[in-house]
């Protein structure tokens, strides 16, 4: 398909671009920046790529750049390989989780989301891996982002940060994870974890928006995993606009914890690496008066000759370190299962 040939050419030319496919759609969107400068976001319409906490807030503006769309044809699934990670992180991560649980029991915070970076010493075929990603996860937001000064990221995220159309908005509270089966049974820990996220979002917006609606939590399938998800919607008021809502929501307790500042402080001091754009957000900002943003989960970064896969899980007082490590392993399979060797 021609769009993938173009992507390969842009990679060879080191040209900034993003290609993305929205959930449950078969239309590819390709936005190509005409220069290689880093354009920092300052409220202009474009595709935004935002870090978790610290880092460049990048935008590829729609104006002045090349934007094209087309229908995806049926993609041939390329055979993937399960590469071996560089180091055994099990003990390190379980110790981190135990430290998080201890901090919760000491009253430092109610929940913290802890993560790790899985390093695979392999070179992958970017385009073929991206093709696998698109065809494997039709209900996710699938993207490939490249900037010579930022790096190459791709992912298939199940989590919407916010969708805004004129003054109406929708967001989700998504948390709790287990391997998908037909008869999913949720433990108290997972139900509590998801309720934390719902309660936080509602508390932050209820006095600032009108017509607020919250649905009951339902089980959704995301690749080989199941999550609990509630929809939250409402109408923005004249003194609480899109940017106010985005700043209020990011980062949600689904990627950092509660209270937010205490959880972020613990993450920065204890995770042992920088998340960069993992658990940040990305997507269309103010395109035709609509904003469509997603949390950057189930993602990888290609860095020199290695692939970094980022995975995390929500920690509460009832968390079991070994089970949380297994959850991160399960989450890593979303990206491991689509990797194609060079």
TrEMBL record:
- What class does this enzyme belong to in the EC scheme? isomerase
Isomerase is among the record's keywords? yes
Q: Which InterPro entries match?
A: ADC_synthase (IPR005801), Chorismate_C (IPR015890), IsoChor_synthase (IPR004561)
* Occurrences of domain Chorismate-utilising enzyme C-terminal (ranges): 90-331
Q: What is its EC number?
A: 5.4.4.2
Catalyzed reactions: chorismate = isochorismate
Write one Pfam family the protein is assigned to: Chorismate_bind
- Which keywords are on file for this protein? Isomerase
Similarity section: Belongs to the isochorismate synthase family.
Query: Per its record, how is this protein called by name?
Result: isochorismate synthase
Q: Which organism is it from?
A: Flavobacterium helocola
């Amino acid at each position: 398909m021609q769009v993938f040939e173009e992507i390969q050419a842009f990679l060879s030319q080191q040209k900034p671009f993003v290609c993305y496919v929205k959930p449950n759609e078969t239309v590819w969107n390709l936005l190509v920046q005409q220069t290689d400068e880093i354009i920092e976001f300052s409220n202009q319409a474009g595709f935004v790529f935002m870090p978790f906490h610290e880092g460049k807030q990048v935008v590829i503006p729609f104006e002045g750049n090349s934007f094209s769309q087309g229908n995806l044809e049926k993609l041939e699934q390329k055979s993937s390989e399960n590469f071996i990670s560089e180091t055994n992180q099990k003990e390190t991560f379980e110790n981190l989780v135990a430290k998080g649980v201890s901090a919760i029991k000491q009253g430092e915070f109610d929940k913290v989301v802890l993560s790790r970076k899985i390093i695979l010493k392999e070179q992958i075929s970017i385009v073929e891996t991206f093709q696998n990603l698109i065809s494997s996860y039709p209900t996710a937001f699938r993207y490939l982002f490249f900037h010579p000064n930022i790096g190459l990221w791709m992912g298939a995220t199940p989590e919407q940060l916010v969708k805004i159309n004129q003054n109406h908005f929708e967001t989700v509270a998504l948390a709790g994870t287990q391997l998908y089966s037909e008869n999913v049974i949720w433990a108290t820990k997972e139900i509590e974890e998801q309720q934390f996220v719902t309660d936080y979002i509602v508390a932050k917006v209820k006095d600032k928006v009108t017509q607020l609606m919250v649905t009951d939590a339902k089980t959704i399938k995301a690749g080989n995993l199941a999550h609990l998800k509630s929809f939250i919607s409402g109408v923005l008021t004249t003194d609480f606009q899109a940017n106010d809502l985005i700043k209020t929501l990011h980062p949600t307790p689904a990627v950092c914890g509660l209270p937010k500042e205490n959880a972020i402080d613990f993450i920065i001091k204890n995770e042992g690496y920088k998340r960069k754009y993992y658990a940040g957000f990305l997507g269309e900002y103010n395109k035709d008066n609509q904003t469509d943003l997603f949390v950057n989960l189930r993602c990888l970064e290609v860095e020199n000759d290695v692939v970094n896969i980022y995975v995390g899980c929500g920690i509460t007082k009832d968390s079991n370190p070994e089970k949380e490590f297994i959850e991160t392993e399960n989450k890593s399979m979303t990206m491991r299962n689509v990797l194609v060797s060079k």
